[in-house]
């Protein structure tokens, strides 16, 4: 086939033009997303009940529902958290589960359980989490009157955003609702003899929509409508009441007005009341199109509503833009570096140009395959392409060098040169791809995500192989027929260095064997001491600060405190968004908080400023609000949202030995002892809340003729929570409330209640008040109920010490402790990645054994992995790096790349050894000579391919921003492994071959 293609340069050119045209067209149609479209194997069930305590929600709602949902098939873990007003149940399933069917089953279980739930409870919200449900960015809206801006956002602005073809959904929070308050005038009410019950009955009687009647008029029939529906404040004011022969209107005895509803949560942007909108992208939309459409719409909205200000925050598209920029930079750098390397080692102008053409051609062919296979351009697939660009040029370099070694350039020599290396190149591509396939089997979402990376590298390498085998030979014969290899000073120095190194290696086999054994031992020794984490630490110029005031404050006071804290650091904060109290988001992309908690997003000029600002906030809160608990974390990026488990570094779970959650005092005893024992570790206090308990006197209630229903209705009326009707206007519901709701707890029992005889009875006669303390969050799982102590920013050594200490403290006490958290999950992930490496090595062995038809030769090649892994781990330890997903992937990738050089070298040794026989007679090349000659022939290709791969990755050895910091561990591991692997391929592998086959 290659011989035929060499005679058809015009046909090859026309085919390339057609492929490039199709590739360019496909590039404009490939979806560009933040992440691949996968389902995260979690379902979140949100339950709400306004006014209920955490204990009530746990006992009457969350507990029974959790037990019902524990029966869902394929459930891996279930965990629930109950808090004031709401509860959350998180269901975790095995990776690869059909989340669509599980979503249906969960809803069916909820429907069955609803009959045993409290009647006033709303149906829980069920949310299936997908990678594409993560907001691309948030838009904060400030300005205008809160009620009017809220209507505008919910009814107009969000709808206009959702009309954009690139937007799937706009999720918002921070709306200010309204309510119609009917405040009776007690003096006029007393004179007229009208009670609140009479007012409520009058409103209900007037708010009716009767069935339609019809009347016939000759040959025509007409419909008659009776409509007496209440739709406005004026309608309520004009309601008539007839009492004791007198006819009154409601406005004569009551003050009716529309006011702002009681807010359960508040959103602020830079200290101003705001509404924040999370924009979710369509799965098949181009990210650039979304950005352009949103910029255009925001500009138009700014002109239409000049009193409003729109600010884009928490922009996740920056990471995708960084990846796209990396790909472009890597492409240019790969072309430049490959051209420089070829010019230095081979010389001439046409050969570097030939390699430079092969890189974009392979990439265009790869993107065309992406389009045909339905793979989107996302952060994961782009990372595969970025890695692949450095390797795309390798095959072209090998083909060109082998052609030049033939001395002459004609159809026969080109065909022979390509045939000699095509099988080793195919084996190299297969071995490189094989190290990525096991990544798909990582547990959790990581395995599904790395499918795109594996496919990206696999497609890129096969495309580069096709270009090197079928395109490069044609144009080499056409354009570079007169090119000849030259002996430059660089080549001469390189050959001298190789010969000295090879002589030393062959003369000191025991030393080399000692180095190999030492590397194997080094891996075992270093592994326990290298820090382990799921994701590498990344510098952020933004952060999330979560504050739990540990006091039962209202959202308005919560907001005042947050603004006070932010005002203290306003000089170093470029932008801020704070969310206090309960939020209205439908999706679970934002942390759920109670009315006394707040989440502050701050953005600073640099990562250093951000760290300083967070510390200043913590110190200020500790000084002015010592009971508060403060946690800081990096502002969640797309990788954190997908890969993180939401776990602290160490979670201590306390249970009674007979089962059940321990008392607050028992948990506080453990936290206090931890704070004394580890003063430099941030051990949070127990999160509790004080609640008021009203206890009725049944004897007094019977004596005064007051029923429980009457008492409850009166308390709701005094607190302003007695909704009697809701007016629906469009997508908004306006409650109608009787009562003011301005009573403080100390004044509440100073009011009276009217019994059936019309006598006013002081509430203090019927009710006594007491205060109690309970957990703010009640946590439970399939293992039962427990209390938790979350420890963040704890090193591995500190976590181990704390676990030993807690075990000793609880030994013999009524409480037992168990442990969870990132300390365990990171080790589990690293263990899985080592298993991936072992599986990859086995796959490599199978492929090499099939190629060489030998059981021994694959072991010779794979032996270098031991040295490479040991040196990479040593480098990580020396430079203070951790073992994480990115560095481990770098090790796995390096192992797949570095053996490619050894494959070519062993193949060349085999070919020379077989061609000239094994004898020592005149004219035959002995084994030693075959090893040395093969080394000379493959020296330049090995050095050139290694240099092009390493030099293309060197620019990513920086940590200037989040994207660079994520790439750094992977780049560091690959560069270290490639550098060491090149030396091992040059010297150690030939020595192993010589030692084994010399005895044969």
Structural overview:
This protein is of the alpha+beta class. Helix content is 54%, strand content 20%. It is built from 31 helices and 31 strands. A hairpin with a 2-residue loop joins strand 12 and strand 13 (246-249). It is elongated. Mean pLDDT is 80; it is low at 918-924.
Number of strands: 31
Sketch the major β-sheet.
9 strands, antiparallel
Structural class, by secondary structure, is: alpha+beta
What general outline do the C-alpha atoms trace? Answer: elongated
Instruction: Give the radius of gyration.
Output: 36 Å
| Count of DSSP H/I helices | 31
Q: Helical proportion?
A: 40-55%
Attribute tags:
1000 residues; alpha+beta; nine-stranded antiparallel β-sheet; eight-stranded antiparallel β-sheet; 31 helices; 31 strands; 54% helix; 20% strand; elongated
């Amino acid at each position: 086939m290659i011989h035929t293609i060499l005679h058809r340069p015009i046909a090859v050119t026309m085919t390339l033009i057609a492929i490039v045209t199709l590739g360019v067209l496909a590039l404009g149609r490939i979806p560009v997303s933040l992440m691949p479209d996968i389902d995260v194997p979690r379902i979140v069930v949100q339950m709400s009940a306004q006014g209920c305590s955490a204990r009530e929600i746990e006992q009457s709602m969350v507990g029974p529902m959790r037990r019902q949902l524990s029966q869902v098939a394929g459930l891996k873990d279930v965990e629930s958290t109950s808090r004031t007003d709401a509860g959350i149940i998180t269901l975790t399933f095995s990776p690869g589960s059909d989340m669509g069917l599980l979503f249906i089953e969960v809803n069916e279980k909820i429907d069955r359980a609803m009959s045993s739930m409290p009647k006033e409870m709303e149906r829980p919200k069920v949310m299936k989490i997908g990678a594409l449900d993560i907001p691309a960015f948030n838009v904060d809206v400030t300005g205008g009157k809160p009620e009017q801006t809220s209507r505008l956002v919910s009814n107009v602005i969000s709808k206009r955003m959702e009309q954009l073809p690139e937007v799937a959904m706009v999720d918002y929070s921070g709306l200010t609702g309204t309510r119609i308050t009917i405040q009776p005038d007690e003096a006029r009410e007393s004179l007229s003899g009208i009670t609140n019950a009479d007012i409520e009955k009058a409103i209900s009687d007037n708010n009716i929509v009767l069935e339609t009647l019809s009347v016939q008029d000759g040959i025509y029939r007409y419909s008659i409508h009776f409509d007496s529906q209440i739709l406005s404040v004026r309608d309520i004011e004009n309601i008539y009441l007839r009492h004791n022969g007198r006819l009154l209107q409601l406005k004569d005895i009551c003050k009716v007005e529309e006011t702002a509803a009681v807010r359960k949560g508040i959103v602020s942007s830079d200290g101003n009341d705001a509404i924040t909108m999370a924009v979710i992208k369509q799965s098949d939309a181009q990210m650039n199109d979304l950005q352009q459409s949103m910029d255009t719409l925001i500009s138009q909205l700014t002109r239409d509503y000049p009193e409003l200000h729109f600010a884009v925050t928490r922009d996740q598209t920056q990471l995708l833009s960084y990846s796209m920029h990396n790909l472009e930079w890597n492409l240019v750098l790969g072309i430049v570096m490959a051209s420089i390397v070829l010019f230095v080692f081979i010389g001439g102008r046409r050969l570097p140009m030939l390699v430079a053409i092969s890189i974009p051609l392979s990439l265009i062919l790869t993107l065309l395959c992406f389009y045909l296979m339905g793979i989107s351009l996302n952060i994961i697939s782009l990372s595969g392409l970025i890695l692949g660009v450095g390797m795309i040029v390798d095959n072209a370099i090998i083909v060109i060098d082998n052609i030049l070694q033939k001395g002459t350039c004609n159809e026969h020599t080109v065909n022979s040169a390509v045939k000699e290396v095509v099988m080793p190149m195919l084996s190299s591509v297969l071995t490189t791809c094989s190290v990525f396939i096991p990544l798909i089997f990582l547990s959790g979402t990581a395995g599904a995500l790395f499918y795109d990376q594996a496919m990206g590298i696999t497609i890129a390498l096969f495309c580069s192989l096709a270009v090197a085998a079928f395109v490069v030979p044609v144009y080499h014969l056409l354009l570079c027929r007169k090119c000849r290899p030259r002996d430059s000073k660089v080549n001469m120095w390189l050959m001298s260095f190789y010969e000295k190194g090879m002589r030393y290696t062959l003369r000191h086999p025991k030393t080399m064997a000692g180095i190999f054994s030492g590397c194997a031992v080094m891996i075992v020794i270093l592994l326990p001491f290298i820090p382990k984490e799921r994701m590498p630490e990344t510098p952020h110029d933004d952060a999330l600060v979560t504050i739990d005031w540990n006091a039962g404050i209202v959202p308005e006071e919560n907001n005042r405190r947050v603004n006070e804290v932010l005002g203290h650091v306003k000089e170093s904060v470029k932008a801020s968004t704070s969310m206090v109290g309960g939020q209205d988001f439908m999706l679970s992309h934002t942390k759920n908080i109670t009315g006394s908690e707040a989440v502050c997003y701050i953005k600073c000029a640099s990562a250093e400023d951000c760290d300083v600002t967070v510390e200043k906030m913590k110190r200020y809160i500790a000084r002015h609000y010592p009971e508060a608990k403060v946690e800081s974390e990096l502002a969640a990026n797309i990788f954190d949202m997908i890969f993180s488990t939401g776990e602290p570094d160490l979670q201590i779970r306390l249970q009674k030995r007979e089962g059940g959650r321990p008392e607050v005092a028992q948990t506080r005893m453990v936290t206090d002892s931890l704070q004394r024992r580890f003063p430099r570790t941030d051990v949070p206090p127990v999160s509790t809340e004080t609640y008021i308990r009203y206890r009725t006197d049944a004897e007094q209630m019977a004596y005064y003729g007051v029923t429980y229903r009457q008492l409850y209705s009166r308390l709701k009326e005094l607190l302003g929570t007695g909704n009697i009707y809701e007016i629906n206007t469009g997508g908004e519901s306006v409650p109608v409330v009787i009562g003011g709701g301005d009573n403080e707890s100390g004044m509440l029992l100073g009011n009276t209640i009217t019994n059936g005889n019309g006598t006013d009875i002081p509430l203090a006669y019927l009710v006594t008040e007491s205060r109690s303390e309970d957990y703010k969050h009640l946590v439970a799982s399939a293992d039962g109920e427990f209390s938790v102590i979350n420890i963040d920013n704890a090193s591995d050594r500190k976590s181990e010490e704390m676990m030993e200490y807690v075990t000793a403290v609880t030994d013999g006490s009524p409480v037992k402790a168990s442990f969870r958290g990132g300390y365990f999950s990171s080790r589990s992930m690293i263990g899985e990645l080592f298993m991936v490496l072992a599986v990859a090595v086995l796959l490599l062995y199978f492929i090499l054994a099939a190629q060489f038809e030998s059981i021994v030769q694959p072991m010779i090649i794979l032996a270098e992995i031991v040295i490479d892994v040991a040196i990479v781990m040593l480098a990580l330890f020396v430079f203070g790096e951790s073992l994480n997903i990115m560095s481990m992937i770098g090790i796995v990738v390096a192992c797949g790349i570095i053996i490619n050089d050894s494959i070519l070298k062993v193949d060349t040794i085999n070919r020379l050894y077989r061609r000239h026989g094994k004898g020592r007679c005149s004219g035959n090349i002995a084994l030693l000579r075959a090893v040395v000659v093969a080394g000379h022939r493959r020296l330049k290709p090995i050095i050139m391919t290694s240099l092009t791969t390493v030099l293309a990755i060197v620019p990513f050895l920086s940590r200037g921003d989040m994207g660079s910091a994520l790439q750094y561990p992977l780049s560091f591991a690959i560069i270290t492994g490639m550098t060491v692997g090149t030396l091992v391929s040059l010297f150690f592998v030939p020595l192993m071959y010589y030692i084994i086959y010399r005895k044969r």
